[in-house]
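User: Structure please.
Assistant: Input sequence and predicted structure:
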Amino acid sequence: MRYSILSILVVWLSAFGSAEARIVGEEVSYTGDGITMKGYIAYDNSMKGKRPGVLVVHEWWGHNAYARKRARMLARLGYTAMAVDMYGNGKTADHPKEAGEFAGMVRANMTGAVKRFEAARATLAAHSTVNPDKLAAIGYCFGGGIVLEMARRVVDLKGVASFHGSLGTKDPAKPGAIKARILAMNGEADPFTKPETIAAFKQEMKAAGAHYEFVNYPGAKHAFTNPDATALGKKFNLPLAYNKSADRKSWKKMKAFLKSIFS
């Protein structure tokens, strides 16, 4: 009996290990806006044929382990995902001051930001596992704001999903300009997102004729999807906090959104 149980356990662990091993991670370098950027592509190499591709835009901390984690999670769902690098040379920040400077420089030059994003989009589209006609993007915090800006600028995407991203813009979308479907998910208790900003975003989307959905998660603060957010908030005295319920619900919402835009 003991031998049989041990045998079953060994088989189960082997199967689990094999399933995990199917997710391949590739380091990639690409150039845009005159700089070299370092990305990471994840996909399931046991799958046959081409599949949709999803770009993952990092928080203001830069292209770090969290962005790569989300790329691997998308790979497990059957997509090829690319954690992009909007700062260049894989730069990351350890302090909010530095992170704010990095993010601010990108936001201040949206023409350059589009070039950087387009370089990442082209890199993902060219991957051997990707159907270039089925591309989307998701983003977190800074990255959430970036994917919304790319939708405003008619970058070729089926849809974008923003997690606790900045909603405001200096260049509101013109009527009929937004082609991608939009999912914006926000923390209702996020002090960075004011009620008037939400109202302006909704009005902008309606005026542009965009196909969009806005979701507010009760009790969720900024960075609610990141398990490290609470510790970072305490360390730097910032209103950041992980919210397990909002994290799970928003990921489930995104999964349905991607399935819908790629169907």
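The chain has a mean pLDDT of 93.
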